[in-house]
């Protein structure tokens, strides 16, 4: 008898072994556990090493603030007078007379995922939660892969998550995508067991898990569940036609009731935080930031989102996933296509009369043949469902404009198509089937043509070559996003350096200005004013600077947003104040900035006298000095010198320079009642009209004949402009300035 080709079972499963089945299953479970643990450890390492200051997706800070709130049993923040200075990114502000201080805030996100993160915060190991979620996802992928094909395929599928840049990078962040996928996968695994074992217990758990996923991310959960819902409806219809629908209906009732209960819980949560069960928190934050086409808007960014734009965006993201961000990049996609081919071959074999899900399967609900296999969720039916997840995720996200935003703002370039995270599940399952099936095919052919030892060598060689190629392709796929995120981490680390050195979170506090002779910083908690390059948001972009939910921790971080707000914060907190600033333009940590942390004083009295000593920039020939307040100014005659000492004073009558004569006009500029900014501007001019300007801005509050001054002023140095932005921020002698520039300043209360 001549040799025959490989049997279908040799390729896609049902391979006989020479040792005890139970022992083999135990070994495979152990291997799967080791693989899942390895994936979890890899993600934990990435979280610690690559993202110690989080990513540039500032939603991480939102989830962590909410996690800290939940640890204290809070759904709302009550900032009182601090509301405008401490509003976190993506938090809704409500003026509520019944709330403490009349103001309350709540997150646009649901509390499900923050609750998971809270477990890590509670034990001081938040990154551990990320590793556990990643390991759980790998374990559930193993089980699902084993259910669709076999245990060996499940193990490879779990391992492929560790070769998926999208999975690794997003699992290492405090975002909701990986945790929600964990809930979805757990639902899928329980759904399979409920169908195959006719188990009401698994059905109840499955319904609870999909309901919890809905609570976490409603649209994500619906898209993942759609293929399972389709199977449920088809199975019910099949059973009713056979006259046994009630028995099957009970199973899906057991799934549906707890699922609906969690939907009810979601609506109840909505009612608590927004006042309307049908208004989700994200809708309260941005009503036009939702699913569907037409006019869309969030925080001033708007767009008419058309079906054509949705399809174009979906195609762009699909290309990114299948060529770079999926398992092993394009190689994993090719393997998934092969795996899909094997699944089709298996289905064709079953259709033509070979076994269905197992020859020993019992007859159920009076159904037989293909109807029974479908109702009980055969391997082929489950493969179709898993494949359907890929389609539902991509088609469903065509209707959501958030993917387009992620592409335009660069987040998807750094973190991958995170809205399509669930699409990794079918990719890794079918890619694993392609790899395992191909290796079995090679093994079968090798054993036909060579001796056993030679055949093992051939199989090993093929596996080794493939592993080397796969490793190279995977490294190539992950290299660019890894390097880009590493660059941002390094820039964030340098940005936070003065704050880390100050040790605000670890007592005792020490002043950064050793010359300060006032009250020791260690006797009070700290208040840090910080810039807001993205608008009036706390923890955006500096999401590491997060406040405790009660705004009563060792440090309060407040937006530096004008004198009136700054004095309000100072009075409300009674803390040792600091100003965090930087020189340069904030570009999402793509470019470095030069940071500075300055200890502040509040000087109060009838008169505050100040002295500013400025170095004369090289190649300048003339100088002018002026003080400004409330749109008015006074100029003073100043001769050229190697440096200039400028004495100026602030009183209830106004601000003036005292050691130089005024150049006509007013000698003293009035300071308005209340809080305002006062400026000292010194401009040097060169031979060709080029200028270098020093601008010192000090916050002053005038009331009852006295003044209060926040000192030292914000100092900026700029060229070719009289008004200096953050590029010209003075951060000490190490900054990048024109040669000859230097600044010394001091102030005291007199009289």
UniProtKB/TrEMBL annotation:
Q: Which UniProt keywords apply?
A: Cell membrane, Glycosyltransferase, Membrane, Transferase, Transmembrane, Transmembrane helix
Chief site of localization? membrane
**Annotated DUF7846 domain residues:** 526-697
Localisation: Cell membrane
Record has Membrane as a keyword? yes
* Membrane-spanning residues: 28-48, 117-143, 155-178, 199-216, 222-240, 252-272, 328-348, 381-403, 423-443, 455-478
Q: How does it sit in the membrane?
A: Multi-pass membrane protein
Which InterPro entries does the annotation name?
Answer: DUF7846 (IPR057168), LipidA_mod_glycosyltrf_83 (IPR050297), RgtA/B/C-like (IPR038731)
Q: Which domain of life does the protein's organism represent?
A: Archaea
Residue span(s) of domain Glycosyltransferase RgtA/B/C/D-like: 123-238
This protein is called Glycosyltransferase family 39 protein
Which organism does this sequence originate in? Haloferax larsenii
